[in-house]
Design a protein that fits this description.
The chain is α+β, with helices and mostly antiparallel strands and 231 residues long. Helix content is 22%, strand content 43%.
């Protein structure tokens, strides 16, 4: 699962997830902050976690793994992992915070993947469409999506290289997509930035995309949703 963590301000952490902070001190990584709700989910108190190193709170083998994890954060990487808390799947995304070009601390945000509204907000902030496929969560870059089609009670998400099939309705997915997407037809959502040509076919219009054989449709009434379209 690939995630690009960007556009999430620290002050928005409460709205999107539960945050925590870690600093590097004498070669160790030390917890300096953790929201009360996350502490409760983890089963710790402030006294048990804050000011403690990884080796103070985790079994040795886990602490060694996390030590390697945070060393990558301090090298400038943004990383993520999944964890089950209170019987629910969560995604934890951790990124470095810089001060004068040097990593000063790491901030992590823990997202409940079972919460649809948070998932939609997270989708927008990451620039990715997050959808469930079976027991997996797909993180699909919105920039790569060409169009979506609803058929046979499934939604097909097309990029130039892949096709994903999910259960989520077009109406629900539309809430998580950015302004580049329009509901062009009752069965299609299209990325207007990917359109090469639109051809009229009877009362409807066929949408062609560059370097793709598959096509979408747009109704006559929805043509006005396209930006800068001449009369």
């Amino acid at each position: 699962m690939k995630v690009i963590f960007r556009g999430i301000r620290e002050v928005d952490a409460i709205r999107w997830g539960d945050s925590f902070k870690v600093i590097q001190q004498n070669g160790n990584y030390v917890y300096t902050y953790c929201e009360a709700k996350l502490l409760q989910k983890l089963g710790y108190t402030q006294k048990q976690l804050i000011g403690k190193t990884l080796f103070d709170v985790l079994p040795m083998h886990k602490a060694i793994e996390k030590q390697e994890f945070y060393s990558k954060i301090w090298s400038g990487q943004t990383l993520e992992y999944e964890i089950e808390l209170e019987g629910k799947l969560h995604l934890v995304v951790v990124r470095p915070i810089y001060n004068k070009g040097i990593v000063e601390e790491a901030i992590g945000i823990c997202f409940d993947l079972n919460h649809k509204k948070r998932l939609q907000t997270l989708s927008g902030s990451l620039g990715k469409l997050i959808v469930k496929q079976g027991t997996d969560f797909l993180f699909i870059s919105c920039n790569e999506i060409v169009f979506l089609e609803r058929k046979n009670r499934k939604t097909h998400i097309y990029t130039r290289e892949k096709e994903y099939i999910v259960n989520e309705s077009l109406a629900n997915l539309m809430k998580s997509l950015n302004a580049s997407f329009i509901l062009s037809h009752r069965s299609f959502i299209i990325n207007v930035k990917k359109i090469e040509v639109i051809k009229q076919t009877g009362q409807s219009y066929e949408v062609h995309f560059k370097s793709m054989m598959k096509r979408a449709r747009i109704s006559k009434n929805n043509l006005e949703l396209l930006p800068n379209l001449p009369n």
